Amino acid sequence: MILEAIMVDLNDEFTGPVLDQGRWLDHYFPHWTTLDRSAARYAFVPDGLRLRIDHDQPAWRVEDGPMRTSGLQTGSFAGPVGSSTGQQRHRTDGLVVRTAVPTRHLWTPSAGRVEVTAAASPDPACMLGIWLVGVEDGAPEDSGEILLAELYGSMIGPGRSTVRLGVKAHHDPRLTTDVTDHELPLDATTPHRYGTEWDETGVRILVDGHLIKTYDQVLAYPQQLMIALFEFPTAEDRDPAAYPKTADVLRVSGSGR
């Protein structure tokens, strides 16, 4: 079940003082927006990396509403500026590439395992997401996603937390979207381990080393790791004293082929 003979090729405890650019791109799908809007805000803290949403942070894309994000990813791909080719084509109404990005394969295995130790934000307007998604430079249908965890501040807390996980098809006709909520006896605002193993037999998703869900769906193309803190503001007026909103990433370890 677990891939035994694979060298660990992603291991980061975020000790700083700067982010390892050989492992991480500190932007969230920058091709669909501008670099000032896609740029992550973060700081190194004693236990790892603290993702941050600040009071003055702009929305990721004006057309997508006030959602703001700070995230890391281990790959990137998009067509030329003005084209509609790029990862995570989340809209069909005039979505075009605005920022040219090089194709990057910093850590993009087609099979392997990965585990992220993280502590989510308790803010009800925030969500910490951890997922793998197809790089799509081979074919646009190679876009499927393995969702290790979506941790909404409104659904986590002392004693029990809801972890959303699963497989998302996106534009891959070979897959079926299967995402479910799991209430687990843990406080997701404290550090926990969210992991997956995927290969030609399917996908397994684990929390703190315990198998939560198995899928017989196969994503046999390069996947990049994504870790991002999101804020979904409910009002235009924001109290500066309520910021920053934060989530911590303590460790990432992965093996792949």
From TrEMBL:
Coiled coil: none annotated. InterPro entries: Beta-glucanase-like, ConA-like_dom_sf. GO terms for molecular function: hydrolase activity, hydrolyzing O-glycosyl compounds. Transmembrane segments: none annotated. GO terms for biological process: carbohydrate metabolic process. Residues 30-257 form the GH16 domain. This is GH16 domain-containing protein.
